[in-house]
Design a protein that fits this description.
Keywords: Membrane, Transmembrane, Transmembrane helix. The structure is a single chain. Helices cover about 75% and strands about 0% of the residues. The protein has one domain. The protein is mostly helical. The longest helix has about 35 residues.
Length: about 45
Amino acid sequence: MAVDLSEFNHPSWITAVGTGIGYLLILAVLTVALFIVPWLVFATL
């Protein structure tokens, strides 16, 4: 069965993927800022 991927060429798919990547990047930055940095500060004390 051949899969037609041309239906995924719509700009809304690019927007959806960009939103997901942006969300994951923000979560990663917040995780580092709120958990990793304080852990490193208290570990050096």
